[in-house]
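Final report, Chapter 2: Outcomes

The project's central promise was a pipeline that accepts a single protein chain and returns its three-dimensional structure in a standardized token representation, suitable for archiving and comparison. That pipeline is now operational. To close this chapter, we reproduce one record exactly as it appears in the project archive, with the input sequence first and the structure output second.
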Amino acid sequence: MLAEFTQSRLFARPLHAAALIVVAVQLAACSPRQMVVHSVADELATQGQSSEDDLDLAREASAFYLKLSESVLRQQPGHAALATAVAAGFTQYAYAFVAFEADRLDATDAKAAQHLRERAARLYRRGSDHALAALEAARPGFGQQLASNTPADWPTLARDQVALAYWAAAAWGGAISLSKDDPDAVADLPLAVRLARLAWNTDPAFGDGNLAGLMGAFEASRPGGSQKQALAYFDEAVRLGGGRSAGAFVGKAEGIAQPAGDKAAFLDLLQQAVTVKDAPGSPLALSNEVMRRRARWLIESADDLF
């Protein structure tokens, strides 16, 4: 369901992050504790946006970064930038390193694959919880308004809250997609879709197509969704990506071509994803590598999928 990750937030340099702890301890003697914690939160949020093009190094570094950042965020729950980085980090980690591994294991070890999917769902929920908590902190009553059956009561988003809403919705959708046997989880799908739509209403170009891709995934998978509308969203994701986002092609392949049984279009879209080239220092480099790996695996698995 989630194929639109182009912000490399979870891959901070671990030594830099460790140095932050030392700095915080040194400053604590002469500064109020909350000021120090806030400064560390600022730095961690910035580090969470660092670019990285080595996927294996990113995986090794991300667990440390996430644990440290989550610990700081619990002391600064209203820090929107850090909450965004942490939510993005858990979502990307769950998708790239846990749920994808489950997909690859399915054919040989279904039990292990299910265990990984359960873990990925927990990680997704962790990410969405942090983002939703930050939205609630910024606007008390946000969750209650979102759940209202009256559209006039639904909240609106400021432009600087779109990233939080995007990652909350993406993580929420990821957890739901892996929890289809849990009626309570599935019942939350309309809320996740609603949150994504609030972000769309505020900034439809967010993430250079990321949000459009998420809207397409939701539209394609929700009960009563329109495949025509889903295709329009995916086409917009490809357009906004400008050919630089492998995830836009993978999202359209899995969201449109595969359900339609169109193997030729499926393979063509995946080949376009595989051939995406990254400029030096591109912020899309890591997410593109994640999606190129998935595209190659899907190409190899095409005969089993059709």
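Archive annotation: The chain has a mean pLDDT of 86.
This record, like all others produced under the grant, will remain available to the consortium after the project formally closes.
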